[in-house]
Write a structure and sequence with these properties.
Layout: E1 2-8, H1 17-49, H2 54-61, H3 72-81, H4 85-94, H5 105-126, H6 131-135, H7 144-152, H8 157-178, H9 180-201, H10 214-227, E2 232-239, E3 242-249, H11 250-267, H12 276-296, H13 298-307
Antiparallel strand pairs: 1-2, 2-3
Helix pairs in contact: 1-8, 3-4, 4-5, 7-9, 8-9, 8-10, 9-10, 9-12, 10-11, 10-12, 11-12
Length: 311
Amino acid sequence: MLFLPYKLDVSLYRLPFLTILVCLVCLATFLSQMRSGATFEGNLRNYCTQDLDTNLHAMLDNIEESGVGGGCENVFMAIRQSHDRDATIAELAGAVRNLDFYRDKAADLKYKQDTITSAYADFEALVPNALTDKLAYRPDQYNVVTMITSTFAHASWDHLLGNLFFFFIFASCVECVLGPLHFSLSFVVMAVATSLAYSYSASAAEGLPAVGLSGVAMGMMALLTTLLPHARIWCFFWFLFWVRRFTLPVLVIVAWHVGWNVYDLHHHDASSHINYMAHVSGAITGFVLGLLYRLFAQQRLSEMTVEVGSG
C-alpha cells in the first residue's frame, strides 16, 4: 500500500527561486558531506594504523569498562564527541586495566592521562572534523550559525530526498504568497526556533547533534495551511490493483503529519535518532507566523492570495 501527497492544487504565479535555491544548496552540501566523510575515514584509518607510541598503543588496547571500548578509533572519537574532553580522558585513563607504568597509583594515572592527552592533540591536528560535524547543531551550545547550517546538511540520501520533496511542495507556495524577503525571514525563524526547542527538550549530556531540513519543512506546511486554509493537495494512493489520484484539503494532510509527529514525540524509540521535537516545534512556529501575518498583514495576504489562484 502507498499513500503519497505530492502536489498542491495551486497555480504559482512566479518561479519560487529561493525554494529552488535551498534545494540546490542542500544537494550540494550533501555531496560535499559525502566527499568530506570519505576523506575523514581515510585520515582516521591512516592515523590509527601508523606507528603509535608503544605505551600509548598498549593503553588503547587495554581500556575496559568505560562504555567506549578499546582501540585507537573508539577512544579518540569518544574523546572528540564528549562534552567534557578532560573528564573523558581522565575516565579512559582510569579504565586502563592490567597495565601499570609506576608503582605509585597517582603518578601512574597522571602518566596515562598525559600520554592520552598528548596523543589526542596530534589526532586533532591530523584528523580534522568531517563537514557534517562542522555543520551540525549541538543542543548544548546554542550556536546561531549552526542553527542555520544544520538545516542544509543531511544524514543520508533518503533523509535528503524525503525532506526536499515535502519542503518544495509547501515552501514554493509560501514563497509566492509572502515574497522573497518574508519567506527568507520565516525560514531563518523556523531554523532558529526548532534548534532552540531541541536544546530545551534535550539533555545537554544526551542530545545528539542535529542535521536536516525537516523542522523547517514542517513549519512551511503549517504556515501555508494558515495562509491558504482552503487549498487542496493532490494525493496518490495504491493498494494491490487499486490506484487512485485525488485531492484532499491541506488541513487534513497537515493535521495528519503534525498529529503523527506529536504522537511519535511521546512514544518514539530513542534509538531511531529522529528529531521529532524539531518537527513539532517547526509546525508550531509555522502556525504562529501564519497567525501573525493574518493579524498584521491581512491586506497584503488578500492581494497575494488573489494572484495565487487554484489550479
